[in-house]
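Checklist before submission:
- one chain only
- standard amino acids only
- sequence pasted in full

Submission:
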Amino acid sequence: MQTEFKTLSNYVKKRVPSILSSRTNSEITFYISSQDLIKFVTFMKRHTTTKVEQLIDITAVDFPQRKMRFEVLYQFLSVIYNTRFTVSISIKEGIRLDSLTSLYSSAG
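Returned file contents:
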C-alpha cells in the first residue's frame, strides 16, 4: 500500500507542481488553493492513472484563531486502484467554494 501512495503523490506532483502533499501511514493529503478545486478534482477523476470514482465525504474544521479560519476536507476513493486520499483547502470566513456537484452527485 505504501508504494501506491508514494507513486500517486509523485505522479500528481509531476503533473500539478503547485500542489503540496503529505503522507501519514496509509493516507495522503493534497493541499490545494480554493481556485484550483475544480481543475484538480477534474484531473483526478478523468486521468487514466488516478480514476477517482467516488467522493466519499466533505467536512470542515473551524480554527477561529487562524487567518484562514476554515479547513475544508474532501475524501475521495479510486476503486480501480484501491486508493483513498484527502484534498484540503484552507479558506477565510466569507469565501465560497465552487461546488463539485457537476462531477460527483454525492457533493450535493
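Reviewer check: The chain has one domain: 2-93.
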